Design the sequence.
């Protein structure tokens, strides 16, 4: 009897944690009007100051030392030529121009056994702003279409809600002619959606690591 009770308590705890996670964290994607739209929201168990500091550091490294981001914010996103059954990406270079706030990247896109498109020029306009209901807002816009991407527009926000901190992200994108045909809704989840989830999770984990470090240092 005691063993059954312990088992029930254990299962209840797991279910409770999953429910809480689902309440706080979500990612979904839809295809409408010729574009994919992804929404991400993740609870960050860290102070607003730390959550903002992580995003500020990401932004600073994006501008000055983009390659360093592969050690944390872009870690595990498979942007360095790792093999993939559906599509591989190899980031080759990135240069940020402060005056125009444009990030110019060069990327290879590989569809195994079908096509390799080398040296795609991808230019992004990066903007940082602030809305009354949020801490910081970062906007990204594709400057001009290329072989891979036709359009891309996204925003990343830090939101305080009910005394809790959240990272939220909304991405709108459409692909060039061949890739638009190749990337179905199911393939989009396997190519793009999981990367968005991994990216926002990396930021969350870095913020929570810093929060935990401060608590440890303060003996909390």
Sequence:
């Amino acid at each position: 009897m005691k063993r059954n009770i312990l088992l029930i308590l254990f299962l209840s705890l797991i279910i409770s944690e999953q429910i809480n996670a689902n309440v706080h964290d979500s990612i979904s994607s839809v295809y409408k009007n010729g574009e994919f739209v992804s929404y991400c929201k993740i609870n960050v168990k860290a102070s607003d100051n730390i959550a903002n500091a992580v995003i500020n550091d990401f932004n600073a490294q994006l501008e000055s030392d983009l390659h360093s981001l592969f050690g944390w914010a872009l870690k595990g996103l498979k942007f360095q030529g790792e093999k993939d059954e559906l599509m591989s990406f190899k980031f080759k270079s990135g240069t940020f121009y402060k005056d125009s706030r444009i990030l110019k990247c060069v990327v290879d896109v590989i569809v195994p056994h079908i096509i390799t498109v080398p040296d795609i020029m991808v230019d992004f306009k990066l903007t940082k702003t602030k809305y009354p209901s949020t801490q910081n807002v970062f906007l990204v816009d594709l400057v001009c279409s290329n072989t891979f991407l036709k359009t891309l527009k996204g925003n990343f926000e830090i939101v305080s809600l009910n005394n809790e901190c959240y990272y939220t992200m909304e991405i709108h994108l459409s692909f060039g002619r061949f890739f638009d045909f190749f990337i179905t809704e199911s393939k989009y989840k396997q190519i793009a959606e999981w990367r968005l989830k991994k990216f926002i999770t990396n930021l969350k984990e870095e913020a929570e690591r810093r929060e935990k470090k401060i608590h440890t240092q303060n003996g909390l």
